[in-house]
Every structure is written in structure tokens, then in C-alpha cells.
TrEMBL record:
Membrane spanning residue stretches: none
Domain of life: Bacteria
Gene3D superfamilies given in the database record: Mannitol-specific EII, Chain A
Name this polypeptide is given: Ascorbate-specific PTS system EIIA component
Region annotation (Disordered) ranges: 146-169
SUPFAM superfamilies: Phoshotransferase/anion transport protein
One Pfam family matching this protein: PTS_EIIA_2
Domain PTS EIIA type-2: 7-150
Role noted for this protein: The phosphoenolpyruvate-dependent sugar phosphotransferase system (sugar PTS), a major carbohydrate active transport system, catalyzes the phosphorylation of incoming sugar substrates concomitantly with their translocation across the cell membrane. The enzyme II UlaABC PTS system is involved in ascorbate transport.
Keywords attached to this entry: Cytoplasm, Kinase, Phosphoprotein, Phosphotransferase system, Sugar transport, Transferase, Transport
Organism: Actinomyces lilanjuaniae
Location of this chain's protein in the cell: Cytoplasm
InterPro entries registered for this protein in UniProt: Ascorbate-PTS_EIIA_comp, PTrfase/Anion_transptr, PTS_EIIA_type-2_dom
Taxonomic path: Bacteria, Bacillati, Actinomycetota, Actinomycetes, Actinomycetales
Length: 169
């Protein structure tokens, strides 16, 4: 169903159920798969953090969900997206949508090529059931299933932190 979104959020760009100290660390950890696979530079990660420092928590677009991004400015080498799920939600300072459990990171090479994925992202973040499945996912497979269809992922409570953490490499 969400082919553009799932084409961008590949298994190796998913980090599951991690703990962070603050929103800066959340953005950094969410972007790490994109740095590792050569999609973006570390300067792009710093730009995403600076954007929130400058403009506030505008990236928290829906309840419990942030979409970290910045202008490419030559620091995005290919279109990609990553996703970090947090075992303990983090506060970005958004009045309505904090705390955040899902941190998506968008690497857009231009102002248009990622629009199909963004449309699917909007559809995803307005589907409360799918968001709960993403937060509850304990494996990359469960997370990808929730991204694609919203069915078959773990039914564990989104607030259950559990002891399983997985990072796809």
C-alpha cells in the first residue's frame, strides 16, 4: 500500500525501541542509519537539530510523532527516510503532540521528489491504530508490517517498554 514510504524506510534504516536523554539525541539516533548508508552527511543532522533550536518543535506534526528534516543544502546525497521508535517517549516542547515515541527522519534531495512519501506519511500519522502498532513494534518485521498495512504487528501496549531493543544494521 505505502510503497513510496516503505521504499524509503528500508529495514536497515529502522532503529527499534531505544532510549534517549533528549530530543537532540533522538534526532541524532534517528538519522544515524542515513549517515551510515551515505544518504546524508553529519552536517545535515546538525542542520535538523539547529532547525528545531531556531523554529521550535514544528517537526512534531502529530501526536507522539516527529518528522525531522532540514534543507538539503548539498548535504543530502539521496532520497531516504529512517525511523526511530523510543521505548521511553521524549519531550520536544510541543504543546499538543508531546511526548514523542516515533522519530522519522526525512532526507529530501529537492523540493518535489519526496511528495508521494509525504502524502503517505500524512495518511499514516492520521491513523491512530497504525501509530500504536508502530510504537508497539518489537522487531523490524513488525514495524514494516505496520507501515505497509497496519495489520499483524504486536498488540503490546504502546507504553510497555519491555526489555527487547533491536537495531537493524
Amino acid at each position: 500500500m505505502d510503497s513510496a514510504l516503505t521504499d524509503l524506510i528500508t529495514d536497515d534504516r529502522v532503529v527499534i525501541r531505544q532510549r534517549v536523554n533528549d530530543w537532540r539525541q533522538a534526532i541524532t539516533l534517528a538519522a544515524e542509519p542515513l549517515v551510515s548508508d551515505g544518504s546524508v552527511s553529519r552536517a545535515y543532522v546538525r542542520s535538523m537539530i539547529r532547525s528545531v533550536e531556531t523554529y521550535g518543535p514544528y517537526i512534531v506534526l502529530a501526536p507522539h510523532t516527529a518528522l525531522a528534516h532540514a534543507r538539503p543544502d548539498g548535504e543530502v546525497y539521496r532520497q531516504a527516510m529512517s525511523l526511530l521508535t523510543l521505548s521511553d517517549p521524549v519531550t520536544f516542547g510541543h504543546e499538543d503532540n508531546d511526548p514523542v515515541s516515533l522519530v522519522f527522519c526525512l532526507a529530501a534531495v529537492d523540493s518535489a521528489s519526496h511528495l508521494a512519501a509525504l502524502q503517505q506519511f500524512v495518511s499514516l500519522v492520521t491513523d491512530v491504530t497504525r501509530l500504536r502498532l508502530l510504537v508497539a513494534a518489537r522487531t523490524v518485521t513488525e514495524l514494516q508490517r505496520a507501515l505497509r498495512h497496519g495489520h499483524g504487528a504486536s498488540t503490546t501496549s504502546p507504553t510497555d517498554t519491555g526489555s527487547h531493543r533491536q537495531r537493524s544494521t
